[in-house]
Amino acid sequence: MTKPPPPKRDTSTPTPAGPCYWPVDLSRVRIGPRFMGHAALGTYRSGYGYHTGIDFLSNAPGLKVVAMADGVVVSSTPTASRWGYGHNVVIYHAQLGLYTRYSHLYARDVKEGQRVTAGQQIGRMGTSGTDNVHLHFDVIKVALPNPRFNPHNPATGGVARPLAGLDPVEDALTRKYFSDPLAFLNGRSAMNPTTQKVVHA
């Protein structure tokens, strides 16, 4: 995944990062597996390695998913079951210097190259590429090898020989690319997209 060139702007004054939103209405979801969860720790499913982000769980598909912040869609792709993540959107947030990824969507409402604003609907929560209704959400520090990069999957650029147990190589690779979404959003005083009020989780 290639990082887009930054837009030209006046550098005489700092550019504010703008508001941040939770990607879903927190009052309508449950928080599931968290960042760096692992089956060996009893905090994630077996066979998936380390959890790169956070899962927001729902009982039914269709809940609105929004862009965390202003940005540009660098990838919007349909289900590719071999590599997981289902309908998948990746957004680059230049003013924050990071990316976000929204996976297992029921539908995607944005295209590659499209500019989005904080809180704008980009899709709906679904079950694509998984067996239950949830949004997998990642905060990404550097450009991924590909939009469906999974440190536990060699086909996507992950470790060559994934281990069933805790793996320091995979641990380091996960931390190289991903940050804790809960810590980031709480630290940014993110707003609920429905109420427009700051919420901490």
Task: Please summarize what this structure is.
This protein has 201 residues and is mainly beta. The chain has helices at residues 168-177, 181-187, and strands spanning 30-31, 54-57, 64-66, 71-77, 87-93, 98-108, 115-116, 121-125, 134-140, 178-179. The protein has 2 helices and 10 strands.
Helix and strand element order? EEEEEEEEEHEH
Q: Tell me, what's the shape?
A: globular
Largest sheet: 10 strands, antiparallel
What Rg, in angstroms, do the CA atoms define? 16 Å
Overall pLDDT level? 91
The helix content is: under 10%
**Helical element count?**
2
Record field, number of beta strands: 10
List low-pLDDT spans.
5-15
Outline the structure in words.
It is a single chain. The chain contains 2 helices and 10 strands; from the N terminus they run βββββββββαβα. It has helices at residues 168-177, 181-187, and strands at residues 30-31, 54-57, 64-66, 71-77, 87-93, 98-108, 115-116, 121-125, 134-140, 178-179. Strands 1, 2, 3, 4, 5, 6, 7, 8, 9 and 10 form a 10-stranded antiparallel sheet that branches. The chain starts with 29 loop residues before the first strand and ends in a 14-residue tail after the last helix. Residues 5-15 have low confidence and may be disordered.
